[in-house]
Amino acid sequence: MDASRRRLAAILSMDVEGFSTLVEADEAGTLEAVGRMQRDRVLLTIGDFGGHVFKNTGDGCLAEFTSAVNAVAWASAFQRAMNGEDGQEGVRLRVRIGIVVGDVVVIGDDRFGEGVNLAARVQTVAPPGGMAISRGVFEYLAGKTDIYFTDIGEQALKGLTERHRIWIWDPKLVGVRRRRRVAVPDPATQPSIVVLPFDNLGGGEGRDGFVDGMVEEITASLSQVREFLVIARHSAYAYKGRSVDVRTIAAELGVRYLLEGSLRFSGERMRVSLRLVDGGSGAQIWSDRLDAQTDDMFEAQDRIAEMVSGALHPTIRQAEIERSRRKAPQNLAAYDLVMRALPHLWAHRREDNPQAIALLDEALALEPSNGRAAAVGSWARAQQIAYNWSPDLAAERAAGRILIERASGAVDDDPLALTALATAIMLIDGQIDRADALIDRAVAIDVNHAWAWTRRGFSRVYRGRPEEAFACFERANRLSPRDPFSFNSFIGMGLAHFASGRPREALVWTRRALAEKPGMSWPYRDVATFAAAAGEMETARDALNRFLVGRPEMTANFARDAMSFMNPALLARYVDGLVAAGLIDDRVEGVRAARA
């Protein structure tokens, strides 16, 4: 019997509303309709969204997805397809779907545990033809979907003692979309933020010192993030106890963003509520809350400061990107051009990377001494090499090295640029020691910089120390779970598992990255070599064929050259996997196998 394992997963449960009644009225027609639904609407499509059915329940099923975002995307597509069949002949099926993120026990091909049980219960409160999701799913969706969910509050679910807060998507509201988040247009060249005094709710005057100390810690933590300016604590303190419109405060202090907060105490427990506000419009662009114990006030303050810094970093960066996109092209400065380039880099798609390079070249033409533009530009060139987007590796390396030299010494206090430069140095020339020194500096400046922790993880894998990498990738995800670049940590986890001799686990993480970031093709290279190492040859061949589209120059030697930053043992195993999957093997001089 297979040993059991635990993991966190997105679980979907679905069944047909009123199935027994339908069977009673027309057994043959109902069973035929359910079978058709399972065959044509579920099994044929669910794999495209990173999901798989692990249990059929007669009139429904239970499925696991590598991503909550993809589970919701598949559910909405499925329901829209089913709702479109209303006018067709035969039995009309209305399906309820519930989606949760929870702990599951894996035994063979089956799943058990809290996550499975909760999904089945959440499904019961879904509207017919719609879906219900748990708090964990709703929070994970933030900024990643335009589907509108309605908060129906805490619900008592059959068989569960604890009430659960539920959001639903109703088919009657399928045309409703969320409004885009906004950020204030500002002529300043760097975003700025003020941490306002937090409200002490029900804690008594004896808690005021604790609250003020927490604000001080958060301000100090944010001050380490060089991507935005932080207004000094004493300037913000002037607004303590005053009721002033946030737009007025923003204008008086000259800031773009404001962080507001409150603490509510209950004995030795406290709840911290936070929200980030746009200083121009007064609109809320981020919010979160945290429960903690007050027993060790310093540990609690540090934990909250880390959480806020890690969350605000990508949130403000995304707001800055949106701000830059809205500016007229003739008004774009070098800073804005770099911000506009970042989403193209994060996309990790072949067609996006040249657009990023063009924007960064334009920024350097406007401001030749812009170290950040040069550093990020060198990273863009490194991606051309590492992901096999260019057939001319020598030309890309030459262009990247020029930018590396332009950036070196010009980005000493910029964690994002330091990390970009380290990535380029790592991928273009394999100089791991030099790259590590830059990453260490980035972390020293901003200990909550998620991307720097991700690159530190990759460095450990490339050095041949994969077991040290997992903590780095996990910290990056904990610091910034909603970061648009978080999928790269999943790629790293996959490579680390492969390097540690666990190709099946490597496949799980790489598929999760693909589900998290649809449209990428280069990770199929990882899937091919991991699947071949795991003996899943059909999967390996299919993944390699997907990867090779648009890459006619690919051979074993070309792959080895592009990934020369890996340690020799890991690189040899990696390329062996690609060859086993069907890649042309030209590593021995004079031998060049023909591709079938």
Automatic annotation (TrEMBL):
PROSITE patterns: GUANYLATE_CYCLASE_2, TPR
Pfam families, per database record: Guanylate_cyc (PF00211)
SMART domains: TPR
One term of GO molecular function: adenylate cyclase activity
Repeat positions for TPR: 450-483
Keyword terms, alphabetized: TPR repeat
Domain Guanylate cyclase: 10-123
Gene Ontology biological-process annotations: cAMP biosynthetic process; intracellular signal transduction
Membrane-crossing segments per the record: none
Name this polypeptide is given: Adenylate cyclase 3
Species per Swiss-Prot/TrEMBL record: Aureimonas endophytica
